[in-house]
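Colleagues,

For the teaching module next term, I've prepared a clean inverse folding example: a structure given as tokens, and then the sequence designed for it. I'd like students to try predicting residues themselves before seeing the answer, so please don't circulate the second half yet.
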């Protein structure tokens, strides 16, 4: 059972403050919606026990795609033809000149390019107020020492991929830059103006120097097929990356798709309306400096080589600290002095040249919203990671990860969709986790669902940052001595590694379940909250740990059960049940011996009505169930073994007839939370940690319950 306390970087708080200041009108504009979503990290201290601190956005809240973004009918318009001829070009029309192998466009207009340039460059340097439209009509352009397409200046630039054509852009492994004060261009297709890519053709980019496609302003991709192989990042937009449609195959030595503006509150987001994406990245698959909003699309993302390449995780046991300074293995706690994920501010609006070793699937400094789409994510690090809030309102996600499947520093809100987590260290993690809909299945080697963190805790990270040659950069993070102590909100000191994970720790965290289906198979805790759990609807099935150091249910505050259906099976050493102040009744059954996986557990009332028929997927010694059908004062029987003629969903039978089992015990539901063993009603587990009477968590050396009332004998 791991208790990580989530970090809130100083840089994120500064960013959020900027975002909040931008909100002024009653009806939010796209800019204000963006800022409001970013602000969730700044308000964490007041939202730790509320439903959510931000609103799920749609792509239309951030960016508009209109007819002006679409490819024009260039064949019916006036255009300048540029025929590449190997080492030079033949130009028919105005606005462009060829000097040896350099073709320079100096005026707005439409330019249709075809042919091959073996070692040269197309430069756009237009000073007028007209857009520049560059139609690639079957070209092969290679530049051995610079960007083959370099847009220095234009009101707005368009690259149109002519229908049915293949266009190949290749650069060299080294660039000859103007002087030592610049690092531009840095991509095979490099634009300092807003850039829109459209058309139904194919673009192949072989970026041997650094990035594939980079815009230092807005980058819109409306359509086309883009195949990009990049030494560093595949697709980069500083102020935004907005994708309406298209087919993308990206192999990147850095990030697959990224935005970089970390200073302007209304810029630096990624918005994807649709498309098909196949991304293989050494670092993050998609990484946004602000919001990441996905309305639809098909995504196949492998980051960092996939989950099999993840570093081995070491579960932290009570008393070892850990969590206040973030997620670290035991060895790393003693030695870690440098963070590889930093956010900096500088005299320029560019992000500094900090190279991240982050290997996440989807990652954002601001909120992540998934509205629809089909996702297959295999990541060495977190599959979905936000420094603010994650919203899942729809879509289908298949996730295999070497760390968290879904992590948010503030809120994780699941209101729809289907999430299948086949491999993870922890499944769902945030300060506040709200499940109101959807179908979520979690397999975790540690905690399945972990509401962890202290809303009043802010930590900093050290960083190794290299400023660009043209700017002096100051980091927004603060170097912290790893041997120094920190304090919790009450002023208590904590050693390096922090407050999380200690016995009886209580944090401002909340797991709130109001609907949907949640199934958990965890080797650590099944449902774990450093604070409290509330449940008023939905169905939860937990196949918890088989060792007594963890529990199927684990909370430090209270577990208020007012509705819904929960069944949790696992080991008995750390058994917790809903709190006594719950309005819905619950039963906690402990066996004297371990029951084998697949052995049915069945509970029925005195009239034979089914309360529970479950085939646990792992060995178990305790069963906790809360159902609207449980009535205080009524009598119940627990059976083991037998068969059911019904159809099981996640091991739970809701139909059919149960027969052939052995009665274990009869008892009366005398209290709201009734604890039972094979001899009858017994007392609740007691000990440190947890609250709410019957839900209290036992001490780790407790192995036996004390029987106080026997109401039945064992059936023959």
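(Answer key — instructors only)
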């Amino acid at each position: 059972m791991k208790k990580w306390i989530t970090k809130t970087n100083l840089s994120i708080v500064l960013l959020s403050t900027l975002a909040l200041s931008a909100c002024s009108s009653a009806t939010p504009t796209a800019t204000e919606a963006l800022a409001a979503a970013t602000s969730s990290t700044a308000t964490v201290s007041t939202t730790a026990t509320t439903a959510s601190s931000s609103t799920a956005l749609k792509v239309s809240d951030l960016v508009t795609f209109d007819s002006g973004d679409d490819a024009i009918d260039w064949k019916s318009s006036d255009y300048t033809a540029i025929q590449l001829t190997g080492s030079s070009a033949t130009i028919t029309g105005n606005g462009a000149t060829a000097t040896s192998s350099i073709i320079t466009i100096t005026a707005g207009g439409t330019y249709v390019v075809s042919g091959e340039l073996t070692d040269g460059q197309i430069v756009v340097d237009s000073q007028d107020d007209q857009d520049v439209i560059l139609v690639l009509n079957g070209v092969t352009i290679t530049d051995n020492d610079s960007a083959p397409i370099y847009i220095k200046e234009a009101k707005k630039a368009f690259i149109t991929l002519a229908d049915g054509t293949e266009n190949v852009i290749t650069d060299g492994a080294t660039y000859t830059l103007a002087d030592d004060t610049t690092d531009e261009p840095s991509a095979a297709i490099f634009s300092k103006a807003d850039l829109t890519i459209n058309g139904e053709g194919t673009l192949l980019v072989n970026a041997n120097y650094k990035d594939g496609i980079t815009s230092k302003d807005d980058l819109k991709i409306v359509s086309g097929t883009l195949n990009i192989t990049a030494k560093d990042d595949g697709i980069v937009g500083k102020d935004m990356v907005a994708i309406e449609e298209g087919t993308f195959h990206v192999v990147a030595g850095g990030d697959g798709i990224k935005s970089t503006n970390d200073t302007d509150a209304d810029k630096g987001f990624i918005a994807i309306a649709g498309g098909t994406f196949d991304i293989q990245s050494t670092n993050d698959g998609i990484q946004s400096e602000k919001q990441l909003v996905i309305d639809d699309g098909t995504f196949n993302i492998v980051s960092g080589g996939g989950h099999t390449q993840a570093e081995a995780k070491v579960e932290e046991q009570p008393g070892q600290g850990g969590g206040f300074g973030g997620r670290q293995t035991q060895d790393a706690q003693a030695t870690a002095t440098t963070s590889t994920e930093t956010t900096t501010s500088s005299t320029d609006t560019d992000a500094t040249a900090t190279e991240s070793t982050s290997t996440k699937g989807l990652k954002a400094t601001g909120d992540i919203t998934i509205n629809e789409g089909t996702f297959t994510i295999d990541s060495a690090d977190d599959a979905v990671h936000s420094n603010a809030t994650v919203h899942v309102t729809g879509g289908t996600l298949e996730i295999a990860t070497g760390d968290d499947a879904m992590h948010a520093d503030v809120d994780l809100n699941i209101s729809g969709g289907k999430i299948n987590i086949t491999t993870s260290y922890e499944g769902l993690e945030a300060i506040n986790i709200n499940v109101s809909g959807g179908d979520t299945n979690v397999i975790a080697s540690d905690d399945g669902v972990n509401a962890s963190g202290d809303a009043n805790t802010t930590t900093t990270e050290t960083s190794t940052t290299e400023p660009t040659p043209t700017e002096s950069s100051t980091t927004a993070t603060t170097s912290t001595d790893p041997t120094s102590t920190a304090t919790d909100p009450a002023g208590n000191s904590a050693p390096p590694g922090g407050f999380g994970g200690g016995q009886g720790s209580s944090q401002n965290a909340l797991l709130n379940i109001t609907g949907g289906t949640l199934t958990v198979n965890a080797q650590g805790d099944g449902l774990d909250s450093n604070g409290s759990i509330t449940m008023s609807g939905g169905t939860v099935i937990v196949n918890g740990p088989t060792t007594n150091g963890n529990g199927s249910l684990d909370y430090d505050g209270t577990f208020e059960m007012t509705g819904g259906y929960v069944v949790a099976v696992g080991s008995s050493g750390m058994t917790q049940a809903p709190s006594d102040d719950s309005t819905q009744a619950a039963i906690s059954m402990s066996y004297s011996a371990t029951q084998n996986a697949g052995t049915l557990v069945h509970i029925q009332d005195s009239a034979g009505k089914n309360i529970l028929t479950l085939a646990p997927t792992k060995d178990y010694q305790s069963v906790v169930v809360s159902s609207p059908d449980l009535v205080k004062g009524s009598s119940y029987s627990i059976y083991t073994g037998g068969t059911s003629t019904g159809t099981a969903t996640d091991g739970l039978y809701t139909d059919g007839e149960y027969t052939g089992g052995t009665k274990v015990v009869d008892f009366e539901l005398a209290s709201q939370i009734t604890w039972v063993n094979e001899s009858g009603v017994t007392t609740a587990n007691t000990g440190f940690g947890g609250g709410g009477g019957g839900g209290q968590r036992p001490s780790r050396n407790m192995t036996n319950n004390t029987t106080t009332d026997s109401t039945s004998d064992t059936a023959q």
